[in-house]
Task: structure prediction
Amino acid sequence: MNVTIPPHDPDSSGCQRISQVLARVGEKWSILIIITLAAGPRRFSEIKRSINGISQRMLTLCLRGLERDGLVKRTVYAVMPPHVEYELTALGHSLTEPVRALGAWASKHISDIDAARKEFDARVEHQGQTPFTTK
Amino acid sequence: MNVTIPPHDPDSSGCQRISQVLARVGEKWSILIIITLAAGPRRFSEIKRSINGISQRMLTLCLRGLERDGLVKRTVYAVMPPHVEYELTALGHSLTEPVRALGAWASKHISDIDAARKEFDARVEHQGQTPFTTK
DNA sequence: CCGTATCCCCTTGGATACTG
DNA sequence: CAGTATCCAAGGGGATACGG
Result:
């Protein structure tokens, strides 16, 4: 059964732009931030606390990037002390669907991947056995 | 202090591993390689030619990574000159589904993102200050 | 043809200290 | 609290040359 083969042109401008989007999505923290905000609006330090290991700098940069792309909305309340809330825009929420699909795939196959890595590493260790799969 | 995040916990081990998978997917060239191979097996130089701008080094590295994760299968034909073919494994093919979902999302919303970027940049420049990174 | 090895730049990203 | 600014280490990634 042949799956529908979509326009395959990694070289075209279309795929290049998609690649840019994926670069943002693939950025180390972006996905985690989006997932966090998917549950509702959060303050800066709430996000920081909920994502283990992220530095202040990277949180700022990632949020700026997401805001720039129209995925996150930043709201400043002019009070003292400052109160800033971040929330997903409609666009940001729409991203959570394919992201969840990817997350579901990852959850489902993470064990396969781990097994493949172990096998690969073991095979490499035995460098005598060339992976020749002569047909 | 800690608001419960019931459905998704970015801090949990599960999401951490998913993040690893996404890191691979988000790597600059991986997606393009997978998309290329989704159309069928390809030789090394065929992949290189079909992806504009990729260096030999990065193609090798990415293919190794994908092979290690069990997403791509490498077959060497012991002939002269060497003939090596790469193809997606079943696991690799299953990845194309969520990836396509993401790609579809990107295609659909790329204009929104571009518009948001323009607006954001204009807003920033209007304030007379470069906040940080204007990539 | 299919890589591996080397050099090197440049970005990413952490740690820290400092403002409003 | 919510950032900015600065320094610095690690590694991603290009260019090139060479081996099988």
Q: What stands out?
A: The longest helix of chain A spans residues 90-125. The two ends of chain A are 23 Å apart (CA to CA). The helical segments of chain A are 13-26, 30-38, 44-50, 56-68, 90-125.
